[in-house]
Design brief:
Elements (H helix, E strand, L loop, with lengths): L2 H13 L4 H13 L22 E8 L2 E8 L2 H14 L4 H6 L4 H4 L8 H22 L3
Antiparallel strand pairs: 1-2
Helix pairs in contact: 1-3, 2-3, 3-6
Length: 139
Amino acid sequence: MSIAAKQETLLEELALFQDWTERYEYVIGLGKKLAPLAEASKTPTHLIKGCQSQVWIDATFHDGKVQFVADSDSLITKGMIALFVQVLSNETPDDILTADMSFIDRTGLKEHLAPTRANALTLMANQMKQRALEFATLP
């Protein structure tokens, strides 16, 4: 499934919830389903700088695809990073680098988050694209 198709599926799932409390619970639930991030990966190198909460992102490269793992010390932030992990994991670096990340605006989350948390969404997307760029330049 393409990144765009994953984004649309996620948007359709969020649209099922009329109440923002339910949407937040759904996003938090996504975070709870993330594979655990090894404590050894919770280093300053993997920390997304500028986020109000601590958010760590790590990535591996296997068979031409990037796999992301992430964690946060905040439930809602962990859910937000889970959105990106769900959409970008198991994709090629080039597909990640060219992905239109404006889908996050269409979730409506930014309008219902504090400005510092909304800014974190952009930081997360940028960090994941940076990691993909590192893999794209490998010989």
